[in-house]
């Protein structure tokens, strides 16, 4: 038996070796794909040296090319894209897509498309006297093609710029390319499929793109370009049913797919000081509250509405206390009482705030908490909608209804005032009985349940009877606060003013791509 095993083992080994398919050498692949016998003399070590040198030189001229170093360090310095995509003209398809990047408001020059095209043509002529002549060309074509392919797909899929890098109050966690993105793109088997997959096919994008290609106005092109860029940012919305507040439009829209459930005017935060950055530097040096610049802009974010309160109290933010409440209370001792504002010191309410000697306290270190009680004069009105965020902003009713008559409604301290908060509350709770409970808390007649007429009517101004009450939506509803100055609607493009100057800032950030 042992003798049989001794004879059997060599036979098995020989069989395995005979059936083993050896991976083709680079020289064989190049000779086959580029149709030239000179590649039989291809020397991997010599090519590696040329490739490394070309990669270093190109990286100095374009920082994005340096991002390819990690990929080639892991996968080896070989002309992979040339081998895979030259013979079937896929590299030519890449060039065509790059040249058409103008349709997206992107300058093809940033992809070095002219040089890529020239290198492809030289390779097609195929009149090399020795393999050494091909090394710089192959290396350069490989690197520039890899750069063009990865940058083009990234820009169309994720956008040209990261909004978090340029906007102070942008808190939306948009999707960006990860550490595996470059490898995934360069390992593609069909380049044309990759290029097609990153084309934005949304109706909004296509409408803006069509308008961009048609218009001859530079100012209109600018607006369309920045809004096309915004549509390239991948937002973390996982539902077709959501509430959108568009700051430049001063409007809230509650959407369910293509259906609009409700829409209403809103007031948003006021624009920050025009010389905000300059003032901020001065304030950082002096620490003087008088030098502190004002930034009331409503932050851009994605969250979920989790609660709503009737008859809310308003815990007045420290910034408003310092800039408004302190001054008014010091000027008029009856101001706090008239505005129904309670004052607390270390959780204990001060019974007579008029007795406080305000001049003793530094405005920067006021040791009191100010809480406006429910009532008709409460700045939050009669309803408040809560969603998690780091800026302590929310949607709410308002006691200043005249604000909705204004054309420019950037007038709040940062929160969003709603024209018809009850309409939104009704949709969110999704239950007629619960909606009537909300109305009851607001001292309004119920719409769906019978009223006991023997009970006395209550007045909204009866502050003693107004207490906050918590209600929860039927389901947490996604909310996005966004900034869009051009969009398609009813077969036309709607344009809005750049109320926060964010178009201009984005336009400057996109300069190197234009």
TrEMBL record:
Start and end residues of each L,D-TPase catalytic domain: 241-445
InterPro entries linked to this entry: LD-transpeptidase_YkuD-like, LD_TPept_cat_dom, LD_TPept_scaffold_dom, Transpep_catalytic_dom
Pathway entry: Cell wall biogenesis; peptidoglycan biosynthesis
Alphabetized UniProt keyword annotations: Cell shape, Cell wall biogenesis/degradation, Peptidoglycan synthesis, Transferase
Keyword Transferase found: yes
UniProt KW Chloroplast keyword: no
Active site residues of this protein: 396, 415
Similarity annotation: Belongs to the YkuD family.
Record protein name field: L,D-transpeptidase family protein
